[in-house]
């Protein structure tokens, strides 16, 4: 006996597929932005990407010295996931084991001591959260914005009109279930000419603009949280006054600094434990270039210590 699949179930399945696709796109986009947000002069690209992936998923990663060079390694440092099982009075891990998922012989086996055999680096000061876990609520908001835009675009293609009367509550309730799956339609009384006209009149273009603005606002909030520049475009700066641009830049810098502080501490702790030869840094890719800083210093020297400018 063949099970009957309702049209409403098909709509829901399709909408869930659309939502999943949008979420995968949003998460993937920010995952790649995070991975490319730091570079290192001391680490190879493979080492840097491994560290950034670990921070995204777990919020922490262990560094340990290598006894001999291996492929795709610049500094003599290895990295692996770490599972602690002993802590001090400040809830800082003191002992644990490294997860050797691929069975490499250069990853230490058995118990390792933090600060001696390994050094743990953290993405955030709470030493618990991964980047993804803290970004998840932002992703939910952006996906909801995208789904609302999708719903409005669909409603522009076809308007659905349902007659609601005291005798048709069951039908209306059934159709209203589709609201949860982001379908667009109106439930009005055929006795209300204004309501019928409003539904048949389609969607006001201003609604889409409001939804686009809401999406941009939520994207900017996530960019700010991750310390990404979100007022970099000329068009965006044109819509903001100088005070708003300066305030937004300051807030973004504060978030970026809070993340960078932990990344800098990782490199410093490695140098303390294993020696200065193992020191490394993870530099934001949007940091001012050295040549630009040198050019500014040269310009100031030529102008008697005053910044370059026309004012």
Overview of the molecule:
The protein is an alpha+beta fold and 311 residues long. Helix content is 51%, strand content 13%. The protein has a domain at 136-254. It has a 5-stranded antiparallel sheet, covered by helices on one side. Strands 1-9 form a two-stranded antiparallel sheet. Helix 4 links the parallel strand 7 (161-163) and strand 8 (186-188).
In short:
The protein has 311 residues and is α+β, with helices and mostly antiparallel strands.
Key phrases:
five-stranded antiparallel sheet; alpha+beta; 51% helix; 9 strands; 9 helices; disordered C terminus; two-stranded antiparallel ribbon; 311 residues
Helices, strands, pairings?
Blueprint: H1 7-35, E1 38-39, H2 45-57, E2 60-65, E3 77-87, E4 93-99, E5 112-113, E6 119-122, H3 131-157, E7 161-163, H4 169-176, E8 186-188, H5 193-200, H6 205-226, H7 234-238, H8 242-274, E9 283-284, H9 290-302
Parallel strand pairs: 7-8
Antiparallel strand pairs: 1-9, 2-3, 2-6, 3-4, 4-5
Unreliable stretches covering 5 or more consecutive residues: 231-241, 307-311
Distance between the termini: 83 Å
Please count the helical segments: 9
Q: Please summarize the sheet with the most strands.
A: 5 strands, antiparallel
Number of strands: 9
Mean pLDDT: 79
Helix content: 40-55%
